[in-house]
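PROTOCOL LOG
Step 1. Enter all chains and additional molecules of the complex.
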Amino acid sequence: MAHSVSAPGRWGRRLAAGAVVFYALITILPLLWIFMTGFKTPQDSISYPPKVLFEPSLEGYVNLFTTRSRQTPEYMASLPPPDTWYEELVRSRDMVIAGPSKFGERMMNSVIIGFGSTFLSVLLGTLAAYGFSRFKVPLEDDLMFFILSTRMMPPIAVAIPIFLMYRTLGLSDTHLGMIILYTGVNVSLAVWLLKGFIDEIPREYEEAAMIDGYTRFQAFVKVVLPQAATGIAATAIFCLIFAWNEYAFALLLTSGTAQTAPPFIPTIIGEGGLDWPAVAAGATIFLIPIVVFTILLRKHLLRGITFGAVRK
Amino acid sequence: MRGVSKHFGEIPAVDHLDLTVGNGEFVVLLGPTGAGKTTTLRLVAGLEKLDAGTISIGGHDMTTADPAVRDVSFVFQQYSLYPHLSVYENLAFPLRSPAHPHSKSEIRRRVTAIAEMLRITHKLDNRATQLSGGEMQRVAIGRAMVREPQIYLMDEPLSSLDAKLRADLRLELKRIQQDLGATLLYVTHDQIEAMTMANRIGVIDQGRLIQVGTPREIYQDPCNLYVASRLGQPAINVIPPGLIPRFAVPPGTASIGARTEHMHISRSVNGSGQGKVEWIEHLGDQNHLHVRIGDHQIITLVDPETPMSRGDDVDIALTGPLFFDAAGNRLRGTGDG
Ligand SMILES: Nc1ncnc2c1ncn2[C@@H]1O[C@H](COP(=O)(O)OP(=O)(O)O)[C@@H](O)[C@H]1O
Ligand SMILES: [Mg+2]
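Step 2. Run joint prediction.
Step 3. Record the structure below.
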């Protein structure tokens, strides 16, 4: 080994553990606050001093998923008794449920666009990275630099041209348009990350497979892909986080059919006063898919590079 | 292989190589690092395109064929096993390829048989990464052996193992090869591997095949000084003709190659010998005797019981050594003392 690390002493370990816990608290606290706010009533959510202990309510979640209309007391009195707990909750605020909100659809759009663009970025990125890694590509270095250069300016700098192009091409406010856009932004990152990982996989593995009677593509699928799993998982997480959280393009290019959750969530505030619990509930649900995805792929991230099967 | 050449840029890695490996034959290419051994095997396997020459395998011209259709198997110098697969899956991998499909039961039968042969049956369910170096190497050899290809190509498969394991696997490999009647082209820089396993040895240097012959021939009858110096432990002693007085050499002799068996060393009786014992290395069963003659040093093997010690004056007599001309080529005349 080129360098060795001595085991830290008892105090060193405690100090390190303390630092990790402290950092975790700082980062988790805002998330915890959002999570709690989602279960507060609107009054509790804006009370001062802020309430740490409160009676939980699902009002935020009900408001998130419904649209409601305020009614006169006479009309309320004329209604038959409510069928469900959420109707009862809404009526206690002198309102009736007018229908489902757009939140479900917007989440679905986020899922389709986020995962769709991630899949495409990783697919194209893996193939391109493999090509760059294994074959003599003319102007390889220049091409790799060109690919990287597309990430050198903030994507939003080209927002206006893209807006105009998308309007002309009829891609505005479509799933396909957003998937293409996010893939375009992510694929450069994917190629660079994955090329690094694939470069680390010895060619001899594929060569052995080809001698054993596999074609190059079969060797790629059976030998390279499993060993690049770590890199593919890491790349997928990076791509998904970008596509999932992207706000500016989504605000600019989508308004209806293809609108994703990030531009939608803030609009909840407007519907009938400052409804912080509904916004917090939206943010909480918005977080869940990406947390689940990361946890699912964590196994691959932690499994690490497979040292040891290599004779040194 | 006929007139096979391969250049990397300006460097000739393999230079007009002619070699035929007969059916059931174990041929070892012996050469130092950088001699072009790996490149030769890669050319045969189809992993590199040759610049000139032809390669045929099993009577078919394979010069430009894809690796998959050549029906060879390869043990690489490094990176032999797939870390994401178990030992069983590693061994079964070549049997599942589209070019050589086998039924499930056939795969099981062959993998089990090869695992038994290599004594790794108890490790079949392990991941490839959980094996020791020796076990990994056995699996790598096993992966080449599960199929019955036209020829097995092995690139220094034992070079990364410790001495004991190397000796064990050497024997095993030879035994398996004989049992299967397999055809092997094996490359190594280790003369002992070459001497013990080969039916024929090809000595290769700088991409050129210098001499091909049985281990005996190569050892006893090397065609030049280079081949002579590749074989023998300790290495052959090269001395100028005038060093040992009263020893006739063929005309043109520029140097004499003398191995242990060509020399007789005795304590000089009158106290003024040609050489002086400079050092004795104890190897256990034998000793290395370092003798200084003028400004030359000679190393030979002696019995541990030999009654000699540092500083002793000794006389040296030669019987049937090898003679080489100024270019290092063998002169086949005989000299005598
Ligand atoms: N892919 C390559 N690119 C450039 N030079 C190479 C390549 N492979 C081998 N060589 C050169 O060819 C020569 C023979 O190499 P090699 O066949 O690996 O030797 P060996 O296996 O006998 O040690 C060496 O000089 C090496 O540097
Ligand atoms: Mg080599």
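Step 4. Note key features.
The first helix of chain A runs from residue 10 to 37.
Residues 304-312 of chain A have pLDDT under 50 and may be disordered.
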